[in-house]
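Task card 7
Instruction: Convert sequence to structure tokens.
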Amino acid sequence: MAEYIPFEKLSADAKAEYEELQAKLKDGALTPKDRMAIPQQEMPTDEPKARARKMSEVALGYTVEQAVVEANRCLQCKNAPCMQGCPVSVPIPDFIAHVAKGEFKEAVDVIKTTNLLPAICGRVCPQEKQCQGSCTVGKTYKNAEKAVSIGRLERFVADYERNNNLETTPAVAKETGKKVAIIGSGPSGLTVAADVRRAGHSVTVFEAFHKAGGVMVYGIPEFRLPKAIVAKEIDNLKAMGVEFRTNFLVGRTGTLPQLLKEQGYDAAFIGTGAGLPKFMKIDGENLIGVFSANEYLTRANLMKAYDREHADTPLYEAKHVVVCGGGNVAMDAARMAYRLGAEQVDIIYRRTRNEMPARKEEVAHAEEEGVNFRFLENPVNILGDETGHVRAVTALSYELGEPDASGRRSPVAIKGSEHEIECDAVIVALGNGSNPLMAKTTPGLDVDAKGHIVVDETGKTSIDGVWAGGDIVLGAATVILAMGEGRRAAAGINAYLAK
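Output:
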């Protein structure tokens, strides 16, 4: 954990190192070897045991000095492999070059040519698997964790712009008279809204919940992504002229065919996400105290169950929480449990740490905060007491066998290894499926066996004038992948309307 230290409080040696770097940069004397020798800047974070009981953001962000030093680690590769790893093709070397010179507003303006949500992406995207996974510096070290910290720099410049009131509203082309309906206000929907509005089309975003933002509001916790940041990005879209209609569930409040035929929308984008939780299909999942991670996090994030005096939703009191799963959502649920009053939190995962799909940073933060990991175990049933409440989980122990189709070694149950884990709440975080509502209420909309909407290479569906993207097409994915889908669809919509 790195402690946040303002520049004026740095040691004399640290100040001298920073000033020497600036002098070399000014003289143009910083060689690739010099850049490779610059140590990676750690992200300052709040103290683990204190933050585990607070909803405030865990990662504190770079100082100006840290951002400049980290940016100077970039080798400015001619072939820009980092861009190839970015689903929305942010001009990464260009924005980092500005950061290295202290030109922070210019840096964020470069990012926003392809990504209008840098403060969000800088916080929650799995950069280590995308842009940073392709970084030459990381490859030279043979360690992706040593790559240039692209995500942290993206977050820094976005925060700098917002905190200094430097935001500028993107330019909008002359009004075309065309109307586009966006269904869902998650990352893919907001991306389409921005790109289509920039082309001069009228845009209305329909959101089922009472707040816009999709998974960024109801799924990702405050301590990872402050909701004020999401609200600010939505305000920016409103300033561009995008209209938001909340409490409008397409398929119930009104259908997609009605929007197109009766309300005069010329095109539509479906970005409803994958919000149907998956369960384990074991005995005891109907007991009081068993939650899907979706419900648990939505109550805490969107409905603020932790604010007991003002929240309209109840908070389930639990002292020992068991979370089933190994992805980022499982980490979010486990860490949220501490913030909602739990005294012990266990994550049960049937493989080992090496196979966990969650980001290493999120696993490390969970462990720092006291989450206990029970690897090579898996629940086989949930036990209840005489009142119908959870009292324990029966689990099996596992060992790893041969790799499965994804390359991860398959877990094999050890016979006779059944054991009980006492608990009073169970959170199931095994991913989500597609809600069938859209397909059921939209004749002619093709979906696959898993309920994902079928699209072509432009994101167009089987219905003329209708595109789709994000989790409803990909299955559960990341914010930035959903945004990439949105950019592709927006290009298709703009080309369609231009005809």
